[in-house]
């Protein structure tokens, strides 16, 4: 086996000083693919400098993008399946965030069992849960219906509070987040996330990092 040292995750904004666990995995996967590629020579010094300035907001939309506004933290993440939601929750816990709320709609076309797994992961960490209609022009028109997700959450966690926003869901959700709290917008379609970020930033007048 071979061990190479490139950079410390605690120095990487992209991993939030080592807190965003799935982004650490993304970095390792990318480095491994490049390092072992027969036709690419990895420049370790340049790679380290790049990793030490790269942050979540400027690499990939929907990968733990953070918006700060009036003492509130709003996280926008593409998490749309049980594993992704579990990883997102673990990263928030590592940052010391407990019991955040979330706004979600899930676009995966799956069976009822998949819907129940989504409900289990959401209700295990987020309370209350705010729901909205699927994104317009979504590429997955037969995704999980809001009512099906509501029913599944009621079964796996009867005590979880739920609210449904039919109009202006992002603005209305942001208004529920108080100073010192964290709110999470998850499950937005990947192509739709830039619009979500722009809409939230325009409404709150915050700073994206």
Shape: globular
Q: Work out the strand percent.
A: 5-15%
Total strands: the figure is 7
Radius of gyration: 18 Å
- Helix percentage: 25-40%
Indicate the low-confidence ranges by residue numbers: none
Separation of the first and last Cα atoms: 37 Å
What does this structure look like?
- With 209 residues, the protein is α/β, with parallel strands linked by helices.
- Helices cover 39% and strands 14% of the residues.
- It contains eight helices and seven strands, in the order αααββαβαβαβαβαβ.
- It has helices at 21-35, 44-51, 56-59, 82-94, 112-123, 146-156, 169-174, 193-204; strands at 65-69, 72-77, 101-104, 129-132, 162-165, 182-186, 207-208.
- A seven-stranded mixed beta sheet has the order 5-4-3-6-2-1-7.
- The model has no long low-confidence stretch (mean pLDDT 84).
Task: State the main characteristics.
alpha/beta, seven-stranded mixed sheet, 7 strands, 209 residues
Please sum up the structure shown.
The protein has helices spanning 21-35, 44-51, 56-59, 82-94, 112-123, 146-156, 169-174, 193-204; strands at 65-69, 72-77, 101-104, 129-132, 162-165, 182-186, 207-208. It has 209 residues and is α/β, with parallel strands linked by helices.
């Amino acid at each position: 086996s071979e061990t190479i040292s490139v950079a410390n995750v605690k120095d990487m904004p992209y991993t939030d000083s080592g807190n965003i666990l799935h982004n650490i995995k993304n970095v390792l996967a990318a480095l491994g693919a490049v390092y072992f590629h027969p036709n690419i020579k990895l420049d370790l010094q340049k790679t380290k400098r790049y990793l030490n300035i790269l942050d979540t907001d400027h690499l990939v939309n929907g990968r733990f993008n953070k918006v700060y506004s009036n003492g509130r933290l709003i996280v926008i993440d593409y998490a749309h399946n049980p594993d992704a939601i579990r990883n997102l929750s673990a990263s928030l816990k590592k940052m010391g965030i407990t019991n955040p709320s979330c706004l979600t709609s899930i676009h995966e076309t799956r069976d009822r069992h998949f819907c129940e797994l989504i409900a289990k992961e959401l209700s295990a960490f987020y309370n209350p849960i705010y729901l909205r209609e699927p994104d317009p022009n979504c590429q997955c028109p037969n995704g999980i219906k809001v009512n099906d997700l509501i029913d599944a959450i009621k079964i796996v966690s009867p005590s979880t509070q739920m609210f449904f926003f039919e109009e202006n869901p992002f603005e209305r959700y942001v208004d529920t987040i108080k100073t010192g709290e964290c709110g999470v917008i998850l499950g937005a379609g990947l192509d739709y996330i830039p619009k979500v970020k722009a809409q939230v930033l325009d409404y709150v007048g915050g700073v994206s990092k």
